[in-house]
Amino acid sequence: MAHDNSSGSGHPAADSSADPSAHGQELQVATGTGVISRDAVVDPGLPPHRKRVTDLDPKKDKRAERAVYTLFYLSIAGSVWAVAAYMAFPIEPEDIASVRLNNLFIGLGMALALLAIGIGAVHWGKALMHDEEGIDYRHKVGGNQASRDRAVEIMHQANVESGIGRRALIRNSLIGSLIVFPLPGIALFRGLAPYDEDPVELMQHTMWKEGTRLARDPSGTPIKASDVTLGSAFHVIPENLHEADHVLNEKAKAIVLLMRLKPEDLVEEESKKDWSYDGIVAYSKVCTHVGCPVALYEQQTHHLLCPCHQSQFDVTNHCAVIFGPAARPLPQLPITVDDEGYLVARSDFHEPVGPSFWERH
């Protein structure tokens, strides 16, 4: 009597005996020519290679070559234009329109320079470089003579396949564009300091001088010693800052952080005991690492933190560096009070403010 092994759904029931692999048997596949093993699948190989139009037509090859070196020459023009724009559209003090023009034209020149190099290199690779499939076999890295000889062969082969040795215009224009491309960036570094003044001298002196009142930033309201409560911190500018020719430049150098601690918590050198007043101390807000604003004051630990690179300074000990990349303490502004009880500077800073790469005397 025949038995039906199918389920109610019409599909054969699962049976482990029907799976040859369950009994260690080799699974075989029936083909038109016989039976082959599952592991004997034939590698179909790579599809036939299709040549590019530049491989088939010398005129189109020449046209692609012209396009590539033209793009590299455009890159050179963009870099030169960016340098010229830096000089032709200078930033004028307090003139935001000059900033916009300067950024616009320099940016356009640098964008053209970079885009032209990128597009030219991609077009070179897709249209002109060697277009045959290859296999890179893994091998042990060694430094013997055979390896070095093979490296020379590979370099020679790369030269032949890329055509950089025989396509002189592409090679020379690429080298020229790569040499000229960094020039706008180098030119922009010149804007970090005025043309007619010594940057070291500029950072050596600020607007602080004897008798200059400490004022709140940004209101310019003078600060009395009685206004500074224990544990408080004030962002401070010179009271006469508005009289400066270049307010932002002077503020960037003279900005100060004012704090009040218990006098007994301060560890002061003998020569600097009169630089504070009744536990009130003032330190430059400009980090001695790269010039970021040190504005985070931890009231309980008396630490100042620079948010840019996490340098930390100990306010109780002349703002000595206790963590991070800063190389020296924050410069201290000597302070006292005048006859009306307002906090005033005793003098300017005794050392340059800002990053430590400035020369120090």
From TrEMBL:
It holds the Pfam family Rieske. CDD domains: Rieske. Iron-sulfur subunit of the cytochrome bc1 complex, an essential component of the respiratory electron transport chain required for ATP synthesis. The bc1 complex catalyzes the oxidation of menaquinol and the reduction of cytochrome c in the respiratory chain. The bc1 complex operates through a Q-cycle mechanism that couples electron transfer to generation of the proton gradient that drives ATP synthesis. GO terms for molecular function: 2 iron, 2 sulfur cluster binding; metal ion binding; monooxygenase activity; oxidoreductase activity, acting on paired donors, with incorporation or reduction of molecular oxygen. PROSITE patterns: RIESKE. Residues 1-23 have a biased composition (Low complexity). It is found in: Cell membrane. It comes from the Bacteria. Residues 1-59 are annotated as: Disordered. Gene3D superfamilies: Rieske [2Fe-2S] iron-sulphur domain. Residues 253-344 form the Rieske domain. The keyword tRNA-binding does not apply. InterPro entries: QcrA_N, Rieske_2Fe-2S, Rieske_2Fe-2S_sf, Rieske_Fe-S_prot. Belongs to the Rieske iron-sulfur protein family. Keywords: 2Fe-2S, Cell membrane, Disulfide bond, Electron transport, Iron, Iron-sulfur, Membrane, Metal-binding, Oxidoreductase, Respiratory chain, Transmembrane, Transmembrane helix, Transport. Its main location: membrane. This is Cytochrome bc1 complex Rieske iron-sulfur subunit.
